[in-house]
Amino acid sequence: MDLQLRGRTAFVSGSTQGIGRAIAEALLAEGAAVVVNGRDGTRVRAVVEDLRAAVPDADVSGIAADLADPAQVQRLLAELGDVDVLVSCAGVFGLAAFAKVSDAEWQHYVEVNLMGGVRLSRHLLPRMLERGWGRVVFVGTESAVDVPADMVPYGATKAAALALANGLAKLTRGTEVTVNTVLGGPTWSDGVAAAVAEVARSQGAPVEVVRDAVVAGNPTSLLQRFIDPAEIAHLVAYLASPLSSATNGAALRADGGVLTTVL
Predict the structure, then answer these.
(1) Exactly one of 11, 138, 154, 226 is catalytic; which is it?
(2) pTM of the full structure
(3) Is residue 154 flagged as an active site residue?
(4) What is the mean pLDDT of residues 66-73?
(5) What are the residues whose beta carbons fall under 8 Å from the beta carbon of 142, sequence distance 6 or more?
(6) Backbone phi, then psi, for 26, in 5-degree steps?
């Protein structure tokens, strides 16, 4: 299927690894020009080169910026210019006892998981509306709907980002601009793989054993395995395309059946 993205420009925040990188590659494969982003300039440049090798004739560039720093976001936006597609993917997560999470840690979650998307969309969405076409896709999580007890800051700030996307969609009424969220499930991203590897090291167990135990410990999963980042990316690419014109203000699930509600 041709997603009709040739001639479109996309910016994907948090795209030097994991789901964000998979999204960047999926959009490039569909012919879009893509700007990748991460905090480390060396890493950004390396990913740009890797994507050029993976997707022949890819129009890909990169801008390094930490979305938790408003000044760096302003610099990024000045360099970026206008884009047709914004994919807000940058995020932080972690396991922690609620009572032990400091105000500073909470603020970091807010800055990255919520305010990063606020700052990007506040600048780019009005320009899409002025030009008459655009797509904003927030990469969310099932944890925003069913917040884990050991990931309260993550779930709470992702729930706020889900509400943000819902509100922004209402600003697009009667236009060809859409705002949607993809609710991903447990995904074998770089961050998750590193966390599982750390648990395996501390337990003296093989990574595969710990990984399988995590899956087995999630009784509502219908997929019964970790999701591959590319599986999230396919849905994001569709929502970024002109073909998704009737989908707006939605939270679409790519959660492997973890959430038990029908809607």
Answers:
(1) 154
(2) 0.95
(3) yes
(4) 96
(5) 183, 184, 185, 253, 255, 258, 259
(6) -65, -40
